[in-house]
Protein backbone atom coordinates (compact mmCIF):
# COMPACT_ATOMS: atom_id res chain seq x y z
CA UNK A 1 0.00 0.00 0.00
CA UNK A 2 2.75 2.42 0.94
CA UNK A 3 4.52 1.56 -2.22
CA UNK A 4 1.43 2.21 -4.26
CA UNK A 5 0.86 5.63 -2.77
CA UNK A 6 4.48 6.43 -3.33
CA UNK A 7 4.15 5.44 -6.96
CA UNK A 8 1.11 7.58 -7.36
CA UNK A 9 2.97 10.52 -5.96
CA UNK A 10 5.93 9.80 -8.10
CA UNK A 11 3.72 9.91 -11.13
CA UNK A 12 2.15 13.19 -10.20
CA UNK A 13 5.54 14.74 -10.16
CA UNK A 14 6.61 13.09 -13.36
CA UNK A 15 3.37 13.63 -15.19
CA UNK A 16 4.99 16.67 -16.68
CA UNK A 17 7.77 14.67 -18.24
CA UNK A 18 5.41 12.02 -19.55
CA UNK A 19 3.14 14.14 -21.61
CA UNK A 20 5.84 16.55 -22.60
CA UNK A 21 6.47 14.55 -25.75
CA UNK A 22 2.83 14.79 -26.59
CA UNK A 23 2.59 18.53 -26.19
CA UNK A 24 5.61 18.90 -28.44
CA UNK A 25 3.91 16.86 -31.08
CA UNK A 26 0.93 19.09 -31.18
CA UNK A 27 2.18 21.13 -34.13
CA UNK A 28 2.30 18.15 -36.44
CA UNK A 29 -1.08 16.90 -35.40
CA UNK A 30 -4.13 18.50 -36.91
CA UNK A 31 -5.42 19.70 -33.59
CA UNK A 32 -8.73 21.37 -33.17
CA UNK A 33 -8.88 24.80 -31.69
CA UNK A 34 -10.17 23.31 -28.50
CA UNK A 35 -7.25 20.96 -28.21
CA UNK A 36 -4.85 23.77 -28.89
CA UNK A 37 -6.37 25.76 -26.11
CA UNK A 38 -6.23 22.78 -23.87
CA UNK A 39 -2.65 22.13 -24.78
CA UNK A 40 -1.71 25.56 -23.68
CA UNK A 41 -3.26 24.82 -20.35
CA UNK A 42 -1.32 21.61 -20.17
CA UNK A 43 1.88 23.38 -21.00
CA UNK A 44 1.27 25.86 -18.25
CA UNK A 45 0.52 23.04 -15.90
CA UNK A 46 3.56 21.25 -17.18
CA UNK A 47 5.80 24.13 -16.29
CA UNK A 48 4.23 24.34 -12.91
CA UNK A 49 4.69 20.66 -12.24
CA UNK A 50 8.27 20.92 -13.29
CA UNK A 51 8.96 23.97 -11.20
CA UNK A 52 7.16 22.51 -8.23
CA UNK A 53 9.06 19.29 -8.52
CA UNK A 54 12.44 20.95 -8.80
CA UNK A 55 11.89 23.41 -6.05
CA UNK A 56 10.41 20.83 -3.77
CA UNK A 57 13.24 18.41 -4.36
CA UNK A 58 15.68 21.15 -3.48
CA UNK A 59 13.56 22.42 -0.68
CA UNK A 60 14.41 21.86 2.91
CA UNK A 61 12.74 25.00 4.03
CA UNK A 62 10.04 26.08 6.32
CA UNK A 63 6.36 25.44 6.08
CA UNK A 64 5.12 28.54 4.27
CA UNK A 65 7.09 28.17 1.07
CA UNK A 66 6.17 24.50 1.00
CA UNK A 67 2.54 25.40 1.40
CA UNK A 68 2.91 27.58 -1.63
CA UNK A 69 4.26 24.66 -3.60
CA UNK A 70 1.41 22.52 -2.42
CA UNK A 71 -1.02 25.14 -3.60
CA UNK A 72 0.62 25.10 -6.98
CA UNK A 73 0.09 21.38 -7.14
CA UNK A 74 -3.59 21.98 -6.44
CA UNK A 75 -3.73 24.42 -9.31
CA UNK A 76 -2.15 21.89 -11.61
CA UNK A 77 -4.68 19.30 -10.60
CA UNK A 78 -7.49 21.69 -11.43
CA UNK A 79 -6.13 22.07 -14.94
CA UNK A 80 -6.83 18.40 -15.57
CA UNK A 81 -10.32 18.26 -14.19
CA UNK A 82 -11.80 18.56 -17.67
CA UNK A 83 -10.87 15.01 -18.65
CA UNK A 84 -10.01 16.18 -22.15
CA UNK A 85 -6.29 15.90 -21.65
CA UNK A 86 -6.54 12.24 -20.79
CA UNK A 87 -8.74 11.46 -23.77
CA UNK A 88 -6.44 13.19 -26.20
CA UNK A 89 -3.34 11.74 -24.67
CA UNK A 90 -4.70 8.21 -24.84
CA UNK A 91 -5.73 8.74 -28.45
CA UNK A 92 -2.31 10.13 -29.34
CA UNK A 93 -0.50 7.20 -27.76
CA UNK A 94 -2.84 4.70 -29.35
CA UNK A 95 -2.01 6.07 -32.76
CA UNK A 96 1.69 5.47 -32.26
CA UNK A 97 1.08 1.77 -31.79
CA UNK A 98 4.40 1.08 -30.13
CA UNK A 99 5.28 0.27 -26.57
CA UNK A 100 5.29 3.31 -24.34
CA UNK A 101 8.50 4.48 -22.76
CA UNK A 102 8.72 4.53 -18.96
CA UNK A 103 8.24 8.25 -18.90
CA UNK A 104 5.21 8.11 -21.09
CA UNK A 105 3.68 5.30 -19.10
CA UNK A 106 4.19 7.32 -15.96
CA UNK A 107 2.87 10.40 -17.63
CA UNK A 108 -0.23 8.58 -18.74
CA UNK A 109 -0.75 7.28 -15.22
CA UNK A 110 -0.16 10.72 -13.83
CA UNK A 111 -2.67 12.34 -16.13
CA UNK A 112 -5.14 9.59 -15.34
CA UNK A 113 -4.67 10.24 -11.66
CA UNK A 114 -5.05 13.96 -12.08
CA UNK A 115 -8.22 13.42 -14.06
CA UNK A 116 -9.95 10.52 -12.32
CA UNK A 117 -8.26 10.32 -8.95
CA UNK A 118 -6.92 7.30 -7.12
CA UNK A 119 -10.24 5.45 -7.10
CA UNK A 120 -10.15 4.73 -10.81
CA UNK A 121 -8.81 1.14 -11.14
CA UNK A 122 -7.21 2.09 -14.42
CA UNK A 123 -5.14 4.68 -12.57
CA UNK A 124 -3.76 2.05 -10.27
CA UNK A 125 -3.12 -0.32 -13.13
CA UNK A 126 -1.29 2.36 -15.07
CA UNK A 127 0.95 3.02 -12.13
CA UNK A 128 1.64 -0.63 -11.57
CA UNK A 129 2.71 -0.93 -15.15
CA UNK A 130 4.89 2.11 -14.74
CA UNK A 131 6.43 0.60 -11.65
CA UNK A 132 7.57 -2.42 -13.59
CA UNK A 133 9.45 -0.10 -15.86
CA UNK A 134 10.80 2.51 -13.56
CA UNK A 135 14.02 3.07 -11.71
CA UNK A 136 12.80 3.27 -8.17
CA UNK A 137 15.93 4.47 -6.38
CA UNK A 138 16.63 7.25 -8.79
CA UNK A 139 13.21 8.71 -8.26
CA UNK A 140 13.18 8.73 -4.49
CA UNK A 141 13.94 12.40 -4.15
CA UNK A 142 11.04 13.28 -6.36
CA UNK A 143 8.73 10.92 -4.51
CA UNK A 144 9.67 12.49 -1.21
CA UNK A 145 9.09 15.94 -2.55
CA UNK A 146 5.70 15.02 -3.92
CA UNK A 147 4.66 13.18 -0.78
CA UNK A 148 5.61 16.08 1.37
CA UNK A 149 3.85 18.51 -0.90
CA UNK A 150 0.61 16.55 -0.83
CA UNK A 151 0.85 16.16 2.92
CA UNK A 152 1.30 19.89 3.20
CA UNK A 153 -1.81 20.37 1.10
CA UNK A 154 -3.73 18.42 3.71
CA UNK A 155 -4.05 15.21 1.69
CA UNK A 156 -4.05 12.02 3.67
CA UNK A 157 -0.85 10.54 2.42
CA UNK A 158 1.78 8.60 4.20
CA UNK A 159 5.20 10.17 4.09
CA UNK A 160 7.65 7.29 3.82
CA UNK A 161 10.26 7.00 6.53
CA UNK A 162 13.06 7.69 4.08
CA UNK A 163 11.32 10.94 3.21
CA UNK A 164 11.07 12.11 6.80
CA UNK A 165 13.08 15.26 7.41
CA UNK A 166 15.63 13.79 9.76
CA UNK A 167 16.17 10.77 7.55
CA UNK A 168 16.76 13.01 4.60
CA UNK A 169 19.09 15.24 6.53
CA UNK A 170 20.82 12.24 8.00
CA UNK A 171 21.24 14.01 11.27
CA UNK A 172 21.49 12.32 14.62
CA UNK A 173 19.74 14.99 16.60
CA UNK A 174 16.71 12.83 17.09
CA UNK A 175 16.14 10.53 19.98
CA UNK A 176 16.16 6.83 19.29
CA UNK A 177 12.80 5.81 17.99
CA UNK A 178 11.59 9.20 17.02
CA UNK A 179 12.62 8.49 13.50
CA UNK A 180 10.43 5.48 13.24
CA UNK A 181 7.45 6.92 15.00
CA UNK A 182 6.09 9.27 12.37
CA UNK A 183 6.49 6.70 9.66
CA UNK A 184 4.44 4.22 11.59
CA UNK A 185 1.55 6.58 11.98
CA UNK A 186 -0.71 5.43 9.22
CA UNK A 187 -2.04 8.17 7.01
CA UNK A 188 -0.41 10.89 8.98
CA UNK A 189 -1.69 14.23 7.90
CA UNK A 190 1.70 15.61 8.46
CA UNK A 191 2.10 18.54 6.32
CA UNK A 192 4.32 19.42 8.81
CA UNK A 193 6.62 16.46 8.70
CA UNK A 194 7.10 17.34 5.15
CA UNK A 195 9.38 20.19 5.27
CA UNK A 196 12.53 20.86 7.04
CA UNK A 197 13.89 23.42 9.25
CA UNK A 198 17.34 23.22 7.80
CA UNK A 199 17.77 26.54 6.17
CA UNK A 200 17.91 26.72 2.44
CA UNK A 201 19.45 29.78 1.03
CA UNK A 202 18.81 28.73 -2.49
CA UNK A 203 15.12 28.87 -1.90
CA UNK A 204 15.32 32.22 -0.19
CA UNK A 205 17.31 33.72 -3.00
CA UNK A 206 14.73 32.56 -5.43
CA UNK A 207 12.27 34.55 -3.40
CA UNK A 208 10.18 31.60 -2.41
CA UNK A 209 8.32 33.85 -0.04
CA UNK A 210 8.01 36.61 -2.53
CA UNK A 211 7.51 37.16 -6.22
CA UNK A 212 8.11 33.53 -7.08
CA UNK A 213 4.75 32.95 -5.46
CA UNK A 214 3.14 34.57 -8.47
CA UNK A 215 2.49 31.04 -9.77
CA UNK A 216 0.66 30.00 -6.65
CA UNK A 217 -3.09 29.96 -6.46
CA UNK A 218 -4.00 33.48 -5.61
CA UNK A 219 -5.89 34.31 -2.44
CA UNK A 220 -6.70 37.49 -0.58
CA UNK A 221 -8.52 38.79 2.45
CA UNK A 222 -11.31 40.46 0.49
CA UNK A 223 -13.42 40.00 -2.60
CA UNK A 224 -13.72 37.03 -4.93
CA UNK A 225 -10.54 35.42 -3.58
CA UNK A 226 -11.42 36.32 0.01
CA UNK A 227 -11.79 33.96 3.00
CA UNK A 228 -15.40 33.01 2.13
CA UNK A 229 -14.13 31.54 -1.12
CA UNK A 230 -10.84 29.98 -0.05
CA UNK A 231 -12.62 26.64 0.19
CA UNK A 232 -13.07 26.53 -3.59
CA UNK A 233 -9.34 26.18 -4.17
CA UNK A 234 -8.35 24.84 -0.76
CA UNK A 235 -10.94 22.30 0.42
CA UNK A 236 -9.77 22.19 4.04
CA UNK A 237 -10.47 25.92 4.40
CA UNK A 238 -14.10 25.27 3.56
CA UNK A 239 -14.75 21.81 4.95
CA UNK A 240 -12.38 21.59 7.92
CA UNK A 241 -14.02 21.18 11.29
CA UNK A 242 -11.14 22.48 13.40
CA UNK A 243 -10.38 25.75 11.71
CA UNK A 244 -8.77 28.79 13.29
CA UNK A 245 -9.07 31.50 14.52
CA UNK A 246 -11.62 31.16 17.30
CA UNK A 247 -13.34 33.60 19.57
CA UNK A 248 -11.85 32.80 22.97
CA UNK A 249 -14.51 32.71 25.65
CA UNK A 250 -15.41 30.56 28.66
CA UNK A 251 -16.19 28.16 30.10
CA UNK A 252 -12.62 26.91 29.90
CA UNK A 253 -11.09 23.56 30.58
CA UNK A 254 -8.05 23.54 32.81
CA UNK A 255 -4.51 22.72 31.61
CA UNK A 256 -1.75 22.24 34.13
CA UNK A 257 1.40 22.59 32.04
CA UNK A 258 3.16 25.80 31.12
CA UNK A 259 5.07 27.16 28.16
CA UNK A 260 8.82 27.50 28.33
CA UNK A 261 10.25 29.51 25.42
CA UNK A 262 14.00 29.43 24.89
CA UNK A 263 14.53 31.89 22.07
CA UNK A 264 17.97 32.96 20.91
CA UNK A 265 19.31 36.04 19.23
CA UNK A 266 20.11 35.62 15.55
CA UNK A 267 20.50 37.41 12.23
CA UNK A 268 17.29 39.20 11.23
CA UNK A 269 15.70 37.82 8.04
CA UNK A 270 12.49 39.58 7.11
CA UNK A 271 10.13 39.31 4.17
CA UNK A 272 6.97 40.94 2.82
CA UNK A 273 5.29 37.92 1.18
CA UNK A 274 2.26 39.81 -0.04
CA UNK A 275 0.09 38.57 2.82
CA UNK A 276 2.06 39.65 5.87
CA UNK A 277 5.42 40.71 7.23
CA UNK A 278 7.26 37.57 8.26
CA UNK A 279 10.53 37.03 10.08
CA UNK A 280 12.29 33.76 9.30
CA UNK A 281 14.08 32.59 12.40
CA UNK A 282 17.53 30.95 12.27
CA UNK A 283 17.95 27.55 13.95
CA UNK A 284 18.34 27.46 17.69
CA UNK A 285 15.18 29.04 19.11
CA UNK A 286 12.82 26.60 20.81
CA UNK A 287 9.81 26.39 23.04
CA UNK A 288 8.80 23.59 25.39
CA UNK A 289 5.11 22.82 25.49
CA UNK A 290 4.20 20.40 28.22
CA UNK A 291 7.83 19.37 28.16
CA UNK A 292 7.99 18.70 24.43
CA UNK A 293 10.42 20.81 22.41
CA UNK A 294 9.33 22.66 19.28
CA UNK A 295 11.61 24.75 17.04
CA UNK A 296 10.61 28.32 16.31
CA UNK A 297 10.67 28.62 12.52
CA UNK A 298 9.09 31.97 11.78
CA UNK A 299 6.79 34.64 13.12
CA UNK A 300 4.44 37.01 11.35
CA UNK A 301 1.75 39.59 12.00
CA UNK A 302 -1.98 40.03 11.47
CA UNK A 303 -3.95 43.27 11.63
CA UNK A 304 -6.30 43.22 13.46
CA UNK A 305 -5.64 40.17 15.63
CA UNK A 306 -7.28 37.09 14.13
CA UNK A 307 -8.31 35.63 17.46
CA UNK A 308 -10.88 37.48 19.51
CA UNK A 309 -11.05 37.50 23.30
CA UNK A 310 -14.66 37.67 24.48
CA UNK A 311 -15.74 38.79 21.06
CA UNK A 312 -13.11 41.50 20.60
CA UNK A 313 -9.99 41.59 18.46
CA UNK A 314 -6.81 43.48 19.42
CA UNK A 315 -5.05 45.97 17.17
CA UNK A 316 -2.67 43.27 15.91
CA UNK A 317 -1.25 39.86 16.78
CA UNK A 318 2.12 38.14 16.36
CA UNK A 319 1.99 34.47 15.45
CA UNK A 320 5.16 32.61 16.41
CA UNK A 321 5.12 29.36 14.43
CA UNK A 322 6.85 26.30 15.88
CA UNK A 323 7.40 22.79 14.64
CA UNK A 324 8.55 19.68 16.49
CA UNK A 325 10.52 16.65 15.32
CA UNK A 326 7.30 14.93 14.28
CA UNK A 327 6.40 17.91 12.15
CA UNK A 328 3.55 19.01 14.41
CA UNK A 329 2.85 22.70 14.48
CA UNK A 330 2.24 24.99 17.42
CA UNK A 331 1.49 28.69 17.17
CA UNK A 332 2.12 31.07 20.05
CA UNK A 333 -0.01 34.19 19.65
CA UNK A 334 0.95 37.47 21.31
CA UNK A 335 -1.87 39.99 21.13
CA UNK A 336 -0.79 43.60 20.52
CA UNK A 337 -3.08 46.29 21.90
CA UNK A 338 -2.83 49.95 21.11
CA UNK A 339 -0.76 51.93 23.62
CA UNK A 340 2.89 52.87 23.97
CA UNK A 341 5.38 52.54 21.18
CA UNK A 342 6.99 49.10 21.02
CA UNK A 343 10.77 49.37 20.55
CA UNK A 344 11.07 45.75 19.42
CA UNK A 345 8.50 46.25 16.68
CA UNK A 346 10.29 49.46 15.78
CA UNK A 347 13.39 47.48 14.84
CA UNK A 348 11.31 45.15 12.71
CA UNK A 349 9.36 47.88 10.95
CA UNK A 350 12.62 49.71 10.13
CA UNK A 351 13.70 46.76 8.01
CA UNK A 352 10.35 45.38 6.83
CA UNK A 353 9.91 45.83 3.07
CA UNK A 354 6.89 47.99 2.23
CA UNK A 355 6.09 45.94 -0.85
CA UNK A 356 5.99 42.26 -1.66
CA UNK A 357 9.42 40.91 -2.53
CA UNK A 358 12.23 38.56 -1.58
CA UNK A 359 13.56 38.08 1.92
CA UNK A 360 15.75 40.89 3.20
CA UNK A 361 18.79 40.18 5.38
CA UNK A 362 19.96 43.53 6.76
CA UNK A 363 23.68 43.46 7.41
CA UNK A 364 24.57 42.75 11.01
CA UNK A 365 21.07 43.32 12.40
CA UNK A 366 20.45 40.84 15.18
CA UNK A 367 17.08 40.06 16.65
CA UNK A 368 15.84 38.04 19.60
CA UNK A 369 12.20 36.91 19.38
CA UNK A 370 12.13 36.62 23.18
CA UNK A 371 11.83 40.41 23.27
CA UNK A 372 8.38 40.16 21.72
CA UNK A 373 6.99 38.20 24.67
CA UNK A 374 5.37 39.58 27.82
CA UNK A 375 6.67 38.44 31.21
CA UNK A 376 3.56 36.47 32.07
CA UNK A 377 3.01 33.45 29.89
CA UNK A 378 -0.45 32.33 31.00
CA UNK A 379 -2.41 31.24 27.99
CA UNK A 380 -5.59 30.08 26.33
CA UNK A 381 -5.27 27.01 24.15
CA UNK A 382 -7.24 25.29 21.41
CA UNK A 383 -6.61 22.97 18.49
CA UNK A 384 -6.93 24.84 15.23
CA UNK A 385 -5.45 25.18 11.77
CA UNK A 386 -3.27 27.39 9.65
CA UNK A 387 -5.27 30.60 9.24
CA UNK A 388 -4.15 31.00 5.64
CA UNK A 389 -4.67 28.60 2.71
CA UNK A 390 -4.41 25.64 2.61
CA UNK A 391 -5.75 25.88 6.21
CA UNK A 392 -4.09 22.60 7.27
CA UNK A 393 -5.46 21.37 10.59
CA UNK A 394 -3.89 19.90 13.72
CA UNK A 395 -2.17 23.13 14.65
CA UNK A 396 -2.01 23.86 18.39
CA UNK A 397 -2.76 27.46 19.29
CA UNK A 398 -1.57 29.16 22.47
CA UNK A 399 -2.82 32.69 22.99
CA UNK A 400 -1.07 34.60 25.73
CA UNK A 401 -3.43 36.30 28.16
CA UNK A 402 -1.05 39.21 28.69
CA UNK A 403 -1.09 41.63 25.81
CA UNK A 404 1.84 43.77 24.65
CA UNK A 405 1.51 47.38 23.55
CA UNK A 406 2.07 48.84 20.11
CA UNK A 407 1.56 52.50 19.19
CA UNK A 408 -1.19 53.67 16.90
CA UNK A 409 1.41 54.89 14.41
CA UNK A 410 3.11 51.52 14.43
CA UNK A 411 -0.18 49.83 13.63
CA UNK A 412 -0.73 52.27 10.77
CA UNK A 413 2.80 51.66 9.49
CA UNK A 414 2.13 47.94 9.06
CA UNK A 415 1.81 47.64 5.26
CA UNK A 416 -1.36 45.50 5.36
CA UNK A 417 -4.59 47.26 6.31
CA UNK A 418 -6.44 44.05 6.98
CA UNK A 419 -4.95 40.56 6.92
CA UNK A 420 -7.03 38.62 9.41
CA UNK A 421 -9.15 35.58 8.66
CA UNK A 422 -12.65 35.83 10.22
CA UNK A 423 -13.58 33.84 13.32
CA UNK A 424 -14.34 30.18 12.53
CA UNK A 425 -16.97 27.88 14.08
CA UNK A 426 -15.74 26.08 17.20
CA UNK A 427 -17.78 22.93 16.37
CA UNK A 428 -17.74 21.92 20.01
CA UNK A 429 -13.98 22.24 20.44
CA UNK A 430 -12.97 22.94 24.03
CA UNK A 431 -10.88 25.98 24.87
CA UNK A 432 -8.33 25.47 27.61
CA UNK A 433 -6.84 27.89 30.10
CA UNK A 434 -4.09 27.60 32.67
ZN1 LIG B 1 -0.81 33.87 11.46
Please give the structural blueprint.
Blueprint: H1 2-25, H2 33-58, H3 63-79, H4 84-96, H5 102-116, H6 121-133, H7 140-152, H8 165-169, H9 180-184, H10 191-194, H11 201-205, H12 230-233, H13 235-239, E1 247-248, E2 253-254, E3 259-262, E4 266-267, E5 270-272, E6 277-280, E7 286-289, E8 292-302, E9 308-309, E10 316-323, E11 329-338, H14 343-351, E12 366-367, E13 379-385, E14 393-400, E15 404-406, H15 408-413, E16 432-433
Parallel strand pairs: 1-9, 2-16, 11-14, 11-15
Antiparallel strand pairs: 3-7, 4-12, 5-6, 6-8, 7-8, 8-10, 10-11, 13-14, 13-16
Helix pairs in contact: 1-2, 1-5, 1-6, 1-7, 2-3, 2-7, 3-7, 4-5, 5-6
Residues 300, 302, 319, 387 line the site of zinc ion.
Amino acid sequence: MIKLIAIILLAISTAGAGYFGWTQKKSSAAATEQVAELTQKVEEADKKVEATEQELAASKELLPPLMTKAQELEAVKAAFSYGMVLKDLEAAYLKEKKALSTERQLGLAGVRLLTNGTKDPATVEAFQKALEMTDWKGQQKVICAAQNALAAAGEKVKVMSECQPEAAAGKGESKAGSKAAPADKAESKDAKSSDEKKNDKKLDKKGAHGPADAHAVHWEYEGAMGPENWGKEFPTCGRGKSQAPLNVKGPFEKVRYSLAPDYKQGQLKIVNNGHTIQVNVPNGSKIRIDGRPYDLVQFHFHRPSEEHIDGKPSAMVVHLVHKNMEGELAVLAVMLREGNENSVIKTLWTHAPKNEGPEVVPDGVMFNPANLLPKELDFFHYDGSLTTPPCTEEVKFFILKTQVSISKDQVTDFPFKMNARPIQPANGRPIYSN
